[in-house]
Amino acid sequence: MAGRRRWTREELVEGVRAGDRRALARAISLVENGDRLAAEVVHDLYPETGRAYAVGITGPPGVGKSSLIAALLPHVRGLGLSVGVVSVDPSSPFSQGALLGDRIRLADHFLDPGVFIRSMGTRGHLGGLAEASLQALLLLDAAGKDVVFVETVGTGQSEVEVIGIADTVLLVLMPGSGDSIQALKAGIMEIPDVIAVNKLDHPAARTMVKEVRSVLALDADREWQPPIVLTEAVRGENVAKLWEEIASHRAFLERDGLLEERRRRNLSQEVFAVASSRAKAHLVRAVEDDAELRRVLEEVEGRRLDPLSAVDEILEKVFRIDADGR
């Protein structure tokens, strides 16, 4: 496209390292598009990462995750910390479909040089959501951000993988939503370190806190008991308290080297998550492009061949893996 600057690998690396917003924006765009140059830039900068504190913010759609981030931003900035935000929630007001009120609240943050906000999709990215989010987080880390918020919907395997890169996971729930309680019962409660029940004025807010506590009580042996904070994101109520609890979790992790241990485990799991995603994408393309493998699927669909025998045939042909997994 005419007028668009062509960045070299070295320029992007130096620009991101210096915290240049244009270089950072370009590098994250390359990440979204699955451009090889993005991988090269992350490769060069990776040894300089590990300084940013990553806070994953998850929960069902519409519970106020973005409003809570918008309320946390001025508080965290007031502490003298720079902030990055990566939103991978398609319903988030950080995306282009923001309501006017949300845009007005966010306008100051977009203009603040100490804040970098980016909404992300999965536009054709080979490794999908997990890979793109991890690379974006690493770029913001390398750019010198002290805190990075990663926002995602708390449903589905890919979202769990995204939240797996966080140091502290904040689960946001809203009273009066049956979906939220179902999310708790479905096992999402294994994930969070801190819980916010947003809309504290709601008549069912305190009832929800009791319900959440009863679910948490099932895992009473857990060393860290997730605190529950009632918040009102739009008015900024209890936002300072929420940040205190996030900071308390960080202090807990930093004792006895738990933070380093969690990060090492998260990074290893992320390697497997991205590798699995790429392998699946490769497998799907291989089957689509091979008439014999398509026939194998048709045999399964017609109940003439059982699924596990089909798996053996496909893996042997695509990955040269035999029925014993060798």
Q: Biggest sheet: strands side by side, in what order?
A: 3-2-4-1-5-6-7
Q: For the record, give the distance between the C-alpha atoms at the N and C termini, rounded to a whole number.
A: 48 Å
Order of helices and strands: HHHEHEHEHEHEHEHEHHHH
- Count of DSSP-assigned helices: 13
**Structural class by SSE content:** alpha/beta
Report on the architecture of this protein.
The structure is a single chain. The longest helix is centred in the last third of the chain and has 31 residues. With 326 residues, the chain is α/β, with parallel strands linked by helices. It is globular and about 60 Å long. 52% of the residues lie in helices and 12% in strands. About 4% of the residues have low confidence.
Layout of helices and strands:
Blueprint: H1 9-17, H2 21-32, H3 36-45, E1 53-59, H4 65-78, E2 83-87, H5 100-111, E3 115-119, H6 128-142, E4 147-153, H7 157-163, E5 168-173, H8 178-185, E6 194-198, H9 205-216, E7 228-231, H10 239-254, H11 258-288, H12 291-301, H13 307-319
Parallel strand pairs: 1-4, 1-5, 2-3, 2-4, 5-6, 6-7
Defining traits:
single chain, 326 residues, alpha/beta
